[in-house]
Write a structure and sequence with these properties.
four-stranded parallel beta sheet; alpha/beta; five-stranded parallel beta sheet; globular; binds FE3-S4 cluster; 13 helices; 14% strand; 14 strands
Length: 395
C-alpha cells in the first residue's frame, strides 16, 4: 500500500504507540482487501462499545489505547452502551454499570463525543462526497444513501483505530464505480409510514445481500422512511448503500442494463408475517423512534400522542424510547424528555434494547422499527409491529 510520509511516520511509532497500533490495524485490513492507499476521513463512529458485546477483552483493548495516549484526530462518536448508567435503566446490574462506565470513560478520554447513539448524522451532518469511517450498519447505510457521504461498514475496532489516525483504507464505497446501482428494484405497492418502509428494507436486505440497488417507489419516500428502510436492510442484509428514487442525493435516474426485481404488496405482507412474531395484545412494552426519528421528533411525537392521556397505565404496559447519552442533550431536549418521563415514558439514555440484556426484562415488545424487530427476535423476544398510535389505542 502506498503511504504518505506522515502515514509512514504514524506506522513507525513517531506519533506514539497508540497511533502506531491503530495505523497497523487500518493498513493491515486495507492491504488484506487490496486497497492501494488510505483516505483522510472527517468523522469516525465506533460501534461495538456495549460491554455486553465486547466483554472484558474489548474493555482492556480500549483502555490500553487510552493509556497509551490515543487521541481522536477527527470528530469521533460512538454507539449506544449496554446500559445507560442511570438509576432508571431497566438493564442495570452493578457489574455492567461499572464496566460500561469504564469503557465510556476511556472513549471520552480519547476525545470521543459522548453520543452513545446509532444516529451520529443527527449530531454532525455528513457532507456529500466526504469520507467517513463508521461502524454502525444502519448509520452507514444512511450516510451513503441519504447524505451521499462515503463509508464502508467498518468493524467497531477498525472505526476506533480510524479515529486515532484520521484515515481509513481507500476501498469499497469510497470509490465512485462501487457506488453505482447493480440492481433495479421496482416497488409496485404504495409504501405508507415508517413500518412499511421498514418492511421494504427488511425484504430488500434479504434479497440483495450487499448489492447496491436503485429503489423505484411509486412516490418518493420521506427521509424518515428512508432511514427506517436503510436500517432494516442493513440488519437483514449487508446493505451499506442504496439509491432511493427522488430522495438520495446520488439519484441520477433508473439504471439500464442491470438485473430487475419487483416487489408487490404480497411480498410486503409476507415480510410482515415473517418479522412479526408476537401480537399487539401480548406486548407489554412499546419501543419507538429508533433510528428513524431524531430524539426531538420522537419526543415531540410522544408528547403529542400522550397529551390527552393521564400517565401511561403504570407497570404492565410501558413506552420506551432510546435517547443519546445525556451529556449530548441540550436544555430543550432535556425538558422534552422530562415531560415524557412525567407521562411514565421510560427514557433509555445512551442505550437501547438491541444492545442490552432485554430478554431478562421483557417477553413481547411492540415497535415501529424493523431493525429493532429483527434483532430482538434473534434475542428470543417476540415482536409486534405497530405505530405508537396503534399501541396506545390498544391500551
Ligand atoms: Fe441503534 Fe438500538 Fe436504535 S441498536 S438504531 S439505538 S434500536
Amino acid at each position: 500500500m502506498h503511504l504518505s510520509r506522515e502515514e509512514e511516520a504514524m506506522l513507525r511509532g513517531d506519533y506514539g504507540e497508540a497511533v502506531a497500533e491503530a495505523m497497523k490495524l487500518v493498513v493491515g485490513v486495507g492491504e488484506a482487501l487490496g486497497a492501494e492507499r488510505l483516505v483522510e476521513i472527517s468523522h469516525a463512529h465506533a460501534s461495538g462499545i456495549s460491554y455486553n458485546n465486547i466483554g472484558l477483552e474489548g474493555l482492556e483493548w480500549i483502555k490500553r489505547l487510552a493509556l497509551l495516549g490515543g487521541r481522536a484526530r477527527v470528530y469521533a462518536s460512538f454507539n449506544p452502551a449496554g446500559t445507560c448508567l442511570c438509576a432508571e435503566s431497566p438493564f442495570n446490574t452493578p457489574e455492567l454499570v461499572k464496566r460500561q462506565a469504564e469503557i465510556i470513560k476511556h472513549l471520552v478520554s480519547m476525545g470521543f463525543d459522548y453520543t452513545a447513539t446509532c444516529i451520529p448524522y443527527e449530531y454532525r451532518s455528513p457532507r456529500r462526497g466526504e469520507s467517513l469511517a463508521w461502524g454502525e450498519s444502519s448509520a452507514v447505510a444512511v450516510a451513503n444513501s441519504l447524505y451521499g457521504a462515503r463509508t464502508n461498514r467498518e468493524g467497531g475496532p477498525l472505526a476506533l483505530a480510524a479515529a486515532l489516525v484520521g484515515r481509513t483504507y481507500y476501498w469499497g464505497l469510497h470509490i465512485d464505480e462501487n457506488r453505482e446501482p447493480q440492481v433495479l428494484v421496482r416497488v409496485e405497492a404504495s409504501v405508507d409510514g415508517v413500518v412499511e418502509a421498514g418492511l421494504l428494507g427488511y425484504l430488500l436486505g434479504k434479497i440483495l445481500g450487499d448489492r447496491v440497488a436503485y429503489i423505484d417507489t411509486p412516490k418518493p419516500l420521506s427521509k424518515r422512511q428512508g432511514i427506517a428502510g436503510c436500517a432494516a436492510a442493513a440488519a437483514t442484509g449487508s446493505i451499506a448503500h442504496c439509491i432511493y428514487k427522488g430522495l438520495s442525493p446520488e439519484d441520477r435516474g433508473a439504471p439500464r442494463s442491470v438485473e430487475r426485481i419487483s416487489v408487490d404488496r404480497k411480498a410486503l405482507l409476507e415480510a410482515r408475517e415473517e418479522a412479526e412474531t408476537g401480537s399487539l395484545g401480548e406486548a407489554n412494552v412499546f419501543f419507538t423512534g429508533c433510528p428513524h426519528l431524531s430524539p426531538r421528533e420522537a419526543l415531540e411525537a410522544l408528547e403529542k400522542a400522550l397529551e390527552k392521556r393521564d400517565r401511561l397505565a403504570a407497570g404492565r404496559r410501558e413506552v420506551w424510547i432510546a435517547l443519546p447519552g445525556r451529556a449530548t442533550m441540550d436544555r430543550d431536549l432535556l425538558l422534552l424528555s422530562r415531560k415524557a418521563a412525567r407521562h411514565g415514558v421510560r427514557l433509555l439514555y445512551g442505550t437501547c434494547p438491541v444492545v442490552a440484556r432485554v430478554r431478562e426484562v421483557v417477553d413481547v415488545i411492540a415497535t415501529d422499527s424493523l431493525k429493532t424487530a429483527f434483532y430482538l427476535s434473534r434475542k428470543g423476544v417476540r415482536v409486534a409491529l405497530a405505530s405508537l398510535e396503534e399501541y396506545l389505542a390498544a391500551l
